[in-house]
């Protein structure tokens, strides 16, 4: 009964071109690392189930966006229906870190009236020798925007699972607390299939009791 | 490389999907009849549904003198009499539900009544008959084959008791201890409780619930070979009913004149078989939808829709900003683009020159590349080509396809394709095994391939839309692009159609030893999904119109500005 999932969360992955968005997603959804990867055109899609608690599965629908500037105006159109996002930068590329602010501002404008729960991801952490962004400053930036920060490597499979599942858990908590609600016309969170066999047998018990008294 | 990976992913997910329909269909069954669901030993979902549906059908037929399924002669010949009869029948029906006047009715019946009042009266007065027959016959048929004699005895006894004493229904009372479930069943019947009780005799109702109890508690089995038992119960019931209601006597006589209960039951069983076949194909249809989604077809369609809607509003707002003269000019341009989109059907026929099926796969790949090249968009058809190749490969067992022979493809792309073919190799090795595929496997593969190829076609159109909108250095006039897009879409649709034809051929070959009722639903379903697939592709293509219009506006404005 794998297909039973509690919710579907739509996540969007953004960040500068060549920071490794597609590779990170592929590592997460396909479990492997592609040495060569074509630049993403517009948007691409991936999905995976995540078990956040025993028996509780969340289906993640991941929108992998093109980082290239020329696609920016299309990818903007896709922000709105996401509940969560991974904002990637390359720890060996200072420029991509500096653009984080810009990315956040841009999404903020385009997702209204909704909000995206972001996690800041410092990618390519296997290339520590070429690091241009310290963990400390990244954490500081993340905290300033109320985000979590995590360093990952798609090549060495470091923290890839954690980046996605932590984000999923955080969103799940918000959904549970009612701070994020399923809304008509918004695709960010969708309710999944829940078996309702229990429901019907409850009814039976009820009527049986009433009959006998 | 991406593709192979996506495939693996999808395959992994498929297992989940197959589970879905059964759990999905459950609630529906439950609505029909809680009793079956509740019985201590639940029966498989399908047979249960069948029996019930069957019974419901039967109930309607048995009860009504002129149901739609029956030869109309009865109606035609004695229409006046029939009208009367129907009225009587209706009275009987309502009566059987509203039990206010019933003095000897036991608690369950009251409960029944209360609940019946709450439940919506769907389907009017006839529904009463349907459900009436259902509650009796569903339980009856559910027990056939298992303790038939017991059923007969018990039913007979209850009927006897009942005809002797119209008030109390002891049978029901005694059975209540373990028979509570079917009370819920009766209670959930969508009986028209609000229709006024016409005739006072409420005897049939008490008797009925007694039978229901008796029958239900005796056992559980499916409707096979127990027709005579049902017939026995049916006849008994008819007699009792007739005794307490002169109007029903006529109904009964009429019925006896037309068909026997067993015959009707057999007919109902046949109908049920057909229905089951249909139901199966419905489940499979759902399966296609799930697969289509797993191959991200829905996501691409949604993303394409987003772009299309956004483009549409851009076009509108731009038109609103123009002065009269310019507006007319631009309108003319946009309409001519629209006309090209509308002309698709004609093109379709022109292009439909049939080619040898084997060549088609390669033909398509090269055509696709060529057309995309003509579009002046940097979209590569790798994923789609791969999906097509995969589809053609499995269906042409034994026939080893030559590697994709793409004439106008750049060397880079060739390399790419070669690269991507590598991960597929292990699958190709399995080819020998594939010759032993069962019909079901061929069927599933057909549906899966259609879902995958269609998803890839839509992805391709989505990518084209993205590239047309943004990312082109040198734009080709939108009108020309529209013309190429038509060709592209037509090629895709033709390819999908030819694939589904291939699949049905393969199904026919593999399933030549199967019965028509097994094979036909599969073939129909493949053809249906093939049709749906082309519709999806075509719809996706239509979404491109505003995109091209925006593109046209952008280029013409750029031209106008300097």
Automatic annotation (TrEMBL), chain B:
InterPro entries: DUF719 (IPR007998). Residues 52-64 have a biased composition (Low complexity). GO terms for cellular component: cytosol; Golgi apparatus; nucleoplasm. Residues 1-80, 161-206, 406-435 are annotated as: Disordered. It holds the Pfam family DUF719. Keywords: Phosphoprotein. Residues 193-203 have a biased composition (Pro residues). PANTHER family: FI01459P, PROTEIN NOXP20. Belongs to the FAM114 family. This is Protein NOXP20. It comes from Carlito syrichta (Philippine tarsier).
């Amino acid at each position: 009964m794998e297909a039973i999932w509690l919710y579907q969360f739509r996540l969007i992955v953004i960040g500068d071109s060549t920071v490794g968005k597609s590779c990170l997603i592929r590592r997460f959804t396909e479990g492997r690392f592609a040495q060569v990867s074509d630049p993403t055109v517009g948007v691409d899609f991936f999905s995976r189930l995540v078990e956040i608690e025993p028996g509780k599965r969340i289906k993640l629908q991941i929108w992998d966006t093109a980082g290239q500037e020329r696609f920016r105006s299309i990818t903007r159109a896709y922000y709105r229906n996401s509940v969560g996002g991974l904002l990637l930068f390359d720890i060996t590329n200072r420029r991509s870190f500096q653009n984080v602010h810009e990315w956040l501002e841009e999404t903020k404008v385009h997702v209204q009236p909704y909000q995206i729960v972001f996690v800041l991801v410092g990618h390519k952490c296997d290339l520590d020798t070429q690091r241009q962004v310290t963990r400390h400053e990244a954490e500081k930036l993340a905290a300033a925007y109320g985000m979590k920060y995590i360093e990952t490597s798609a090549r060495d499979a470091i923290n890839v699972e954690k980046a996605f599942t932590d984000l999923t858990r955080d969103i799940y908590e918000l959904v549970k607390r009612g701070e994020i609600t399923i809304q008509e016309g918004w695709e960010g969170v969708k309710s999944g299939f829940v078996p309702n066999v229990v429901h019907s047998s409850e009814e039976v018990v009820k009527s049986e009791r009433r009959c006998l008294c | 490389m991406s593709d192979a990976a996506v495939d693996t992913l999808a395959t992994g997910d498929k297992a989940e999907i197959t589970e879905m329909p059964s759990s999905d269909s459950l609630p529906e069954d439950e609505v029909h009849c809680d009793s079956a669901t509740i019985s201590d030993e639940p029966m498989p979902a399908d047979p249960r549904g069948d029996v019930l549906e069957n019974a419901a059908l039967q109930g309607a037929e048995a009860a009504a003198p002129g149901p739609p399924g029956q030869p109309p002669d009865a109606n035609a010949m004695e229409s006046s009499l029939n009208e009367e009869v129907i009225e009587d029948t209706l009275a009987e029906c309502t009566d059987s539900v509203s039990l206010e006047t019933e003095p000897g009715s036991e608690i369950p019946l009251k409960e029944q009544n209360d609940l019946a009042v709450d439940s919506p009266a769907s389907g009017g007065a006839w529904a009463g008959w349907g459900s009436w027959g259902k509650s009796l016959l569903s339980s009856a048929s559910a027990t056939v084959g298992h303790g038939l004699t017991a059923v007969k005895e018990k039913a007979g006894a209850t009927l006897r008791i009942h005809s002797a004493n119209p008030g109390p229904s002891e049978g029901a009372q005694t059975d209540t201890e373990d028979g509570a479930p079917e009370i819920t069943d009766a209670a959930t019947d969508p009986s028209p409780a609000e229709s006024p009780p016409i005739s006072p005799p409420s005897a049939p109702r008490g008797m009925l619930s007694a039978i229901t109890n008796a029958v239900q508690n005796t056992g559980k089995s499916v409707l096979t070979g127990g027709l005579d038992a049902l017939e026995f119960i049916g006849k008994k019931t008819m007699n009792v009913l007739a005794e307490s209601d002169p109007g029903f006597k006529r109904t009964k006589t009429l019925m006896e004149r037309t068909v026997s209960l067993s015959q009707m039951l057999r007919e109902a069983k046949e109908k049920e078989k057909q229905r089951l076949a249909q139901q199966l194909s419905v489940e499979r249809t759902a399966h296609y939808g799930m697969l289509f989604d797993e191959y991200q077809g829905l996501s691409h369609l949604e993303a394409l829709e987003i772009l299309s809607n956004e483009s549409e509003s851009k076009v509108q707002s731009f038109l609103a900003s123009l002065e009269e003269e310019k507006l007319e000019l631009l309108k003319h341009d946009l309409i001519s683009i629209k006309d090209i989109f509308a002309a698709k059907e004609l093109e379709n026929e022109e292009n439909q020159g049939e080619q040898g099926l084997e060549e088609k796969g390669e033909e398509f790949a090269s055509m696709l590349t060529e057309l995309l090249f003509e579009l002046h968009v940097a979209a590569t058809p790798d994923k789609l080509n791969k999906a097509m190749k995969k589809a053609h490969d499995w269906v042409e067992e034994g026939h080893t396809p030559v590697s994709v022979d793409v004439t106008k493809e750049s060397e880079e792309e060739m390399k790419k394709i070669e690269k991507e073919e590598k991960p597929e190799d292990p699958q190709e090795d399995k080819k020998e095994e594939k010759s032993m595929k069962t019909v079901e496997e061929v069927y599933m593969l057909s549906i899966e391939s259609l879902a995958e190829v269609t998803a890839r076609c839509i992805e391709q159109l989505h990518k084209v839309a993205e590239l047309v909108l943004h990312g082109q250095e040198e734009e080709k006039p939108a009108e020309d692009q529209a013309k190429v897009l038509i060709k592209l879409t037509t090629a895709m649709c033709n390819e999908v159609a030819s694939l589904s034809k291939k699949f049905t051929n393969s199904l026919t070959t593999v399933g030549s030893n199967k019965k028509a009722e097994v094979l036909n639903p599969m073939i129909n379903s493949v053809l249906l999904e093939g049709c749906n697939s082309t519709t999806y592709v075509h719809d996706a293509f239509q979404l491109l119109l505003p995109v091209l219009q925006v593109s046209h506006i952008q280029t013409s404005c750029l031209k106008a500005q300097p």
